[in-house]
Amino acid sequence: MRLFLFNALLQNNEYFIQKWEEKKNSENQLEKYKAKQFIEIITKAKPLENFDMNLFFKLVKKMTVYEEAKVIVTLLDGTEVECQIERKGLELYPSL
């Protein structure tokens, strides 16, 4: 699931980069720092074939698992991403 999450972030990078660009104007210094860091990671990244633990811990704060194969992934910048686990992969639904 972790590979699918990161690769799904890459596939939807325009949405996430726009969100992080807005946070770069925040008065909260940590929020600004994380937004810049996330943009740098996503713009330089290529789809993963193997799990990268360091990358995972640079992005993910927590994962909340619900029944019905639903997982909410909270990134370190506060962004929440809803994931539906399926037999053949993972669908990604950014929370608004």
UniProtKB/TrEMBL annotation:
This is Recombinase. It comes from Lysinibacillus composti. It comes from the Bacteria.
